[in-house]
Write a structure and sequence with these properties.
The complex is a heterodimer of chains A (424) and B (301). Chain A has 424 residues and is of the alpha+beta class. Helices cover 19% and strands 36% of the residues of chain A. Chain A has 3 domains: 3-224, Rossmann fold (3-Layer(aba) Sandwich); 231-314, Elongation Factor Tu (Ef-tu), domain 3; 320-423, Elongation Factor Tu (Ef-tu), domain 3 (Beta Barrel). In chain A, the strands form 4 sheets. In chain A, strands 7, 8, 9, 11, 12, 13, 15 and 16 form an 8-stranded antiparallel beta sheet that branches. In chain A, strands 2-3-1-4-5-6 form a 6-stranded mixed beta sheet, sandwiched between helices. A 6-stranded antiparallel β-barrel of chain A has the order 17-21-19-18-22-23. The chains are: A alpha+beta (424), B alpha/beta (301).
Chain lengths: 424, 301
């Protein structure tokens, strides 16, 4: 690359996407193909995979092996956890959250989906829309992923048939009519043979759309961030005990959404005091405005007591301040929920105690039906609950705001993260 | 001003600063693991930005194997002075002298694995509850599964199959007495990202990263620098070569590459064209296919 090309690349955006799939739908092969064809595989990695492929008796490079990380996965040929992969093209930088797709791994899919701009859902062309497709699509919708790309894979095994492809699209559209996804696209591919992954396939002249990689390169993600509601959760207070800054008191945090400008009238929650933004500071100097997801330090005009967990917002656009609220909860731990047990709740750099006051309903993830009799959450269960906290939280709905609308529950006995919730 | 959207490098910086501030807010006694390599230097630079105008609120912890590049040590001491932070040195030599570890023997002997014991001893002795590292997920396949906040049990061990899920930007740093955490603010960065960032921010790095003339010998597909610690076989030839290092570890195991890249711009160009991973020149990762995973489970960086 010349210096000029490198300079241009520096202005590129970052796209995070998640792929969910099981052992045999070709997910690992697809990721291997993306990395391999975009020249993101280094020669020593390639040599190591060639070596292992030969040992296993393959006569071709097993692309799937690029994504198997841990010893057990390599031995058993399965993905047991979320793994992150990176690649760059001249147009974008990509982070893949690679998650396994079995029903018992719903929690990993939810984890991978929580930070994703886009989800790739793989459908085996021979089998069409399956229970698993349903589950993946439901989770993408639940986690409000803005862009879903349905890849109809293994087209080589159905003679690259347009009819098969069209039928699957019709079936998927019926399923997705019950979901909330802004943008759904379909691409016929063969991950194994490379059709429509990085370059356009000659085997499917009837497909007029872009190949997968180019689709990812041009996805419009700038509007996925909430630029309306200014929310600044305070992470920590900066008080330098040094010459020149003895009176300095700055509030450090990452802007969750919206835009804050010097001079803006702001309200500090939960106290409700109002003031104005005096400065927005970074190490390289003051800046006139800051927007999500920038990490900055803010000083305000008045001497108000502000600490970690408080939220600075614009006075004319406030979140809800509540102690009792509903969330869609996903249980992540092998230890089931205990009715009325106390958990630590973490939300936007704030931490309180909470109980699950009521289970409104649980969702059968295969049929998407509601079940209101069962009040215990087991690993991978999803449902709607009412939480009650010891002190109020500053909340937006998850639909409006991924940062101020999400919570986790931590078990006080084990310190483990046992559940993730999205404010309804 | 483009449409209120950060480019990827600014987004990665913002994420790393967020994680460093979470460490400060959630732990009692965190430290930055400082090796003198570009990744820990980058983390230290990010910590400056995260807490400005305050000083970096963490000490730097250097696990000193005794097999250092002299240049790294000078660089470390200068940086500590400039930042006004505390430096804690944990010495592998001391672990050997007190019998905590036994040194490997033979030509390819390295102190790499011994560092784990020294590190865990230092964590316990200094009551450290979070050690911030410059580990990146693109470095190695076991690291691809690492969390931002990574739990270690009371033996300092990592259990990759039983990690806490990390959702959104909610980080759970809760632990029981005796346990600790490792935090990895630049998890999502690649080698290329680190170099681009060092160039953009004009961060000082040891001269070893730039092309220079050095006495080296060819071993395990890399140019190993001649040093007082290196046992040289009769059939091995010491040559004067223009080389630079892509990563810095112990002087005994860190291989250089032939290069003319003597400025940051040239390094960035060279790394962009590179067809081998940076750890391809590290003898410590070549011992087996799961060498990194095995060491990490024990408590390695």
């Amino acid at each position: 690359m010349t210096e000029e090309v490198i300079e241009n690349v520096l202005n590129n955006q970052l796209l995070r996407f998640t792929t969910a799939g099981s052992v045999d739908d070709g997910k690992s092969t697809l990721i291997g193909r993306l990395l391999y064809d975009s020249k993101s595989i280094f020669e020593d990695q390639l040599a190591s995979i060639e070596n292992s492929s030969k040992k296993k008796g393959h006569d071709h490079i097993d692309l799937a092996m690029f994504t198997d990380g841990l010893r057990e996965e390599r031995e058993q040929g399965i993905t047991i956890d979320v793994a992150y992969r990176y690649f760059t093209t001249p147009k974008r930088k990509f982070i893949i959250a690679d998650t396994p797709g079995h029903i018992q791994y719903t929690r990993n899919m939810v984890t991978g989906a929580s930070t994703a701009n886009a989800a790739i859902i793989l459908v085996d062309a021979r089998h069409g829309v399956s229970e698993q497709t349903r589950r993946h699509s439901f989770i993408a919708s639940l986690l409000q992923i803005s862009h879903v790309i349905v890849c109809i894979n293994k087209m080589d095994l159905v003679d690259y048939s347009e009819e098969v492809y069209t039928k699957i699209i019709t079936a998927y559209e019926e399923l997705s009519s019950k979901l909330v996804v802004k943008d759904i696209q379909f691409i016929p591919i063969s991950a194994l043979k490379g059709d429509n992954v990085v370059s356009r396939s000659d085997n499917m002249p009837w497909y007029q759309g872009r190949p997968l990689l180019n689709t990812l390169e041009v996805l419009h993600i700038s509007s996925d961030i909430n630029k309306i509601d200014a929310r600044f959760p305070v992470q920590t207070v900066i008080r330098p005990q040094r010459e020149g800054f003895l009176d300095y008191r700055g509030y450090a945090g990452r802007i969750a959404s919206g835009i804050l400008r010097k001079g803006d009238e702001v309200t500090v929650l939960p106290s409700g005091f109002t003031s104005r933004i005096k400065s927005i500071d970074t190490m390289t100097g003051e800046i006139p405005q800051a927007y999500a997801p920038m990490s900055v330090t803010i000083t305000i005009e008045d001497d108000i007591d502000i600490s970690r967990g408080d939220m600075i917002v614009r006075t004319h656009n406030l979140p809800e301040v509540k102690q009792e609220f509903d969330v869609m909860l996903c249980w992540l731990n092998s230890k089931s929920s205990v009715p009325r047990a106390k958990y630590t709740i973490m939300h936007a750099n704030n931490e309180q105690k909470a109980i699950i006051k009521e289970v409104v309903y649980k969702i059968d993830i295969n049929t998407m039906g509601r079940n209101s009799g069962d009040t215990v959450f087991k690993m991978n269960d999803i449902g709607r609950v009412t939480l009650r906290t010891t002190k109020p939280l500053m909340l937006d709905t998850y639909r409006q705001n991924r940062v101020t609308g999400s919570i986790i529950l931590v078990d006080e006995g084990t310190n483990e993260t046992v559940a993730a919730g999205m404010v309804v | 001003m483009s449409s209120y959207y950060l480019n990827y490098l600014d987004e990665l910086e913002s994420e790393a600063i967020y994680i460093l501030r979470e460490v400060w807010a959630q732990f009692q006694n965190p430290v930055i693991l400082f090796s003198g390599g570009k990744d820990s230097i980058t983390v230290t630079h990010l910590a400056r930005k995260a807490f400005y105008p305050a000083r970096i609120p963490f000490p730097l912890l250097h696990v000193d194997t005794g097999h250092n590049f002299p240049e790294t040590m000078v660089f470390r001491d200068d940086l500590v002075n400039e930042l006004g932070v505390k430096l804690i040195v944990a010495s592998v030599q001391q672990s050997i002298d007190t019998g905590r570890v036994v040194e490997e023997k033979g030509k390819n002997a390295s102190r790499n694995a011994l560092q784990t014991v020294t590190l865990l001893d230092a964590i316990e002795a200094n009551k450290i509850d979070c050690a911030i590292g410059g580990g990146r997920r693109d470095e190695e396949k076991a690291r691809a599964k690492e969390r931002f906040f990574s739990h270690r049990d009371d033996f300092g061990q990592w259990d990759p199959k039983n990690q806490r899920p990390e959702l959104w930007n909610l980080l759970n740093g809760k632990y029981f007495q005796g346990e600790h955490f490792r935090a990895f603010p630049i998890s999502n960065w690649t080698e290329m990202d680190v170099w681009n960032y060092i160039k953009k921010e004009d961060i000082a790095i040891p001269s070893l990263y730039f092309a220079h003339e050095r006495e080296v010998l060819w071993r395990n597909d890399a140019w190993i620098p001649k040093s007082e610690f290196l046992k040289i076989d009769d059939n091995e030839q010491v040559l004067l070569k223009k080389i630079r290092f892509r990563t810095l570890g112990d002087i005994t195991i860190t291989g250089g590459i032939e290069s003319d890249a003597d400025t940051l711009s040239k390094i960035v160009e060279e790394v962009a064209a590179m067809r081998l991973t940076e750890r391809g020149n590290r003898a410590d990762d070549k011992r087996s296919e799961t060498a990194m995973e095995d060491r990490k489970k024990e408590g390695y960086f």
